[in-house]
Design a protein that fits this description.
With 84 residues, the chain is mainly alpha-helical. The protein contains three helices and no strands.
Length: 84
Amino acid sequence: MEKKKLGEIIGIVITVLAVLVGIYLYWQSRKPAEPISPGTITDSATQGTLPSIGEAANPLSSKPDLNPADKANPFDSIKTNPFE
């Protein structure tokens, strides 16, 4: 009975030591994570996903001036405040 208990204790000790050595080797082999800048993430996320279409895709680039205040403002040519 004594030999059986001694064998179990030795087996448990060897198993615990093997697990501890494995954990130690795992932590030693890990490399610290490099910091990633937000620009790097954006560049890598959008690289190759959207084609470069330029000015052709903007239908309002040559829109007409529809603001009536720009055409009918009587105070455009006045350089000083008339209400002072």
